[in-house]
Amino acid sequence: MQFIRLTNIQGKAATRTAAIQAGFAVPRMFTAALNCGAVTERAINEHLGEVVSLKKFFPRAISILAGLIAGVLISGILFWATGYSIFGKPREKPLQYDDVTNASLTALAFDILENIRDGDYRELSQVVHPSYGLLFSPSSTVTLSTNKCFSAGQVAAFGTDTNVYVWGVYDGSGEPIEMTPAGYFAEFVYDRDYANATVIGVNHVVKSGNALENMAEVFPDILYVDFHFPCSDKNTADSTNWSSLRLGFEEYNGSLMLMAILHSGWTV
């Protein structure tokens, strides 16, 4: 009897334990069901989010494409009307030698001055004489043995060229002028704003100093423009602060090409 009763008690206890465990199992199943629902909802939301993102992407992509097409059309119309586009003004064709007038020669010289002023050496190189190159003289005297001459390709690289060259000799001391292209342009080319020069001479030297004027003798076929700044104050005894920049051109295959840049000023 005791054994049987104990067994009954154990059976009841086991039943109670099973019931308790079952009771705990129900919440766990419910929790699992909730978690499963949450995962499903999250997956649905993510999917919907992708759909929404795609719905937002396509209108934006279409707007960008429409803007690019409109920009190209506007650029084409602008280029047709003015010669300019969103990428700037196209490179001008070389001035034809047969079409040269004082006005066209001066206009070409002004374009070159703008390239020099802006440091646009690649554009400047486009008008350099293909055969002779471009000669630089720090004075009005052309000395082929000492003046430096560069090819169009070398001129195009002036913006990044850090090499030191001998460009000639200093007036008075006779010491060599040793400079980088940037240094030489700053001191012996565009040392003043020649694009706004007060006097301009076409195939005419506006003012001469003590230095020999032999450009026309060395280059008999040269055409040139002289950009000149006179003395700032003629009422003073100091008449040494005048300066000129001359751009020289020669014909090449029917086109007028730049082949000399001379700087002129007071000399001892």
Brief write-up:
By secondary structure, this protein is α+β, with helices and mostly antiparallel strands. Helix content is 45%, strand content 18%. It has helices spanning 2-82, 102-118, 121-125, 152-156, 181-189, 215-218; strands spanning 134-137, 148-150, 165-169, 176-179, 199-202, 223-229, 243-252, 255-265.
Task: Describe the model.
There is one protein chain. With 268 residues, the chain is of the alpha+beta class. The protein folds into 2 domains: 1-90; 97-265, Nuclear Transport Factor 2, Chain: A, CATH 3.10.450. Helix content is 45%, strand content 18%. The chain contains 6 helices and 8 strands, in the order αααββαββαβαβββ. It has helices at 2-82, 102-118, 121-125, 152-156, 181-189, 215-218; strands at 134-137, 148-150, 165-169, 176-179, 199-202, 223-229, 243-252, 255-265. The strands form 2 sheets. The protein has a 6-stranded mixed β-sheet. It has a two-stranded antiparallel ribbon with strand order 3-4. A hairpin with a 2-residue loop joins strand 7 and strand 8. The radius of gyration is 42 Å and the shape is elongated. The protein starts with a helix and ends with a strand.
Features:
two-stranded antiparallel sheet, alpha+beta, 2 domains, 6 helices, Nuclear Transport Factor 2, Chain: A, 268 residues, 8 strands
